Amino acid sequence: MQTIFSTMRAAVEAVPNARRVGRVSAVIGLRLTVTGLDRALGIGTRCTVHGEAGPVPGEVVGVDAAGAHILPFGTWDGVGPGTPVEIGGAEEGLRAGPDWIGRVIDALGRPVDGRGPLPPAGRARPVRAAPPSAFARRPVGARLETGVRTLDVFAPLCHGQRMGIFAGSGVGKSTLMSMLARRAETDAIVVGLVGERGREVQDFIRTALGEEGLARSILVVATGDEAPLLRRQAAWTATAVAEALRDAGMRVLLMIDSVTRFAQAQREIGLSLGEPPAARGFPPSVFSELPQLLERAGPGSAGQGDITALYTVLVDGDDMNDPVADAVRGTLDGHLVLSRRIAERGRYPAVDLERSLSRMLPDCHSDTENAILGAARAAIARYTDMEELIRLGAYRRGTDAEVDRAILFAEAAEKFLAQGRGEATPAADAFAGLARLLDDAGWPRGLSAQPSQPA
Hints:
Blueprint: H1 2-14, E1 21-28, E2 31-35, E3 46-51, E4 54-64, E5 67-72, E6 84-87, E7 93-94, E8 104-106, E9 125-126, E10 143-144, H2 149-154, E11 157-158, E12 162-167, H3 173-183, E13 188-196, H4 198-214, E14 217-223, H5 228-247, E15 251-257, H6 259-272, H7 284-294, E16 298-299, E17 306-314, H8 323-331, E18 334-337, H9 340-344, E19 357-358, H10 367-392, H11 401-417, H12 427-441
Parallel strand pairs: 8-14, 12-17, 12-18, 13-14, 13-15, 15-17
Antiparallel strand pairs: 1-2, 1-6, 2-5, 3-4, 3-6, 4-5, 7-9, 10-11, 16-17, 18-19
């Protein structure tokens, strides 16, 4: 009897996989409903819709009594009721590795730089994965030197930390990212351009990154004209590539620009499925997807590398209380606020020192560095308190000695913190320069001082 069953099992395993085909029952906006595959489809299953204009890959994003709901990795041109739908078609995993460094890929992991196919490396990994267990992670590592004076002193990054860059349009966000890509002390850089303008992709590669930056980077690109499923997928793909490099023992800098466009893509997906708009038009799924994405970065487990992540957040009208900004700020380990007011004064990077913070302070600085930072923050805060009166001419120098010292320091610090794209300063030199400015202004600094941080 056992021999018979073994023979039958071998015969069944030898039968090629049968094609599973359903039919389109409705197309409303981006959402396509398919019937006939109810038991074979689940959330996240990839499908191919064979329309008159050619096959269109899609993904199951919802299931109810009417059938499975699919969104496209493109458009539904040529698709109508009765169009056949087949399971499978689009690759669901990535075989990323160090050999991908220097390449540009799309949201589905396909090369778009005209340099031929990508070399497969290791096992295929899903682009959407659960964040690592909190108890499996190593602690955040030592300070990561970026060469940017403002960051290394006032809002330092550590290996495995996750930081947000909150900025409106045109305040130097891309310039700051290019400075980090060229100078940050990491083994590799993964850049996810989510919903970027098509015209600016080449500009970012040629101007912002340059040959030096591209030689140590992997770019994942989804432009603003692509389907929301692809824009969301680009952030997942960039994170999956960073995870592959981290598992290979590399220290990775992951930069995703921007999380806001990821949230907007998820909003389009959620609304197409009938989710109610909750906070300023964003459905609840947006605020459950954000931590799932952001928590995947960070230190790896023993024997692995780490992912230091920077996520840009576009704040409409410089409103830092935007729902997406609030959700991201509450999840990350610090934030940089780029100020339009500072950019208009001509100081780049336009980091607002009083509104930016790193949750790794004070542990990532030495006692001496913390003393310098604490004194600098105190002097800048004192100057800010009086800034309006100073600019109006209502304050006369000599009235208050402390304010006079704060003015001397703030004016010198404004010039010191301005930095060009190709300029890099070691952190030790940045602290030494800031200490000289404090001494020149006569501002006291003691080793017992601790850096004050905004709440």
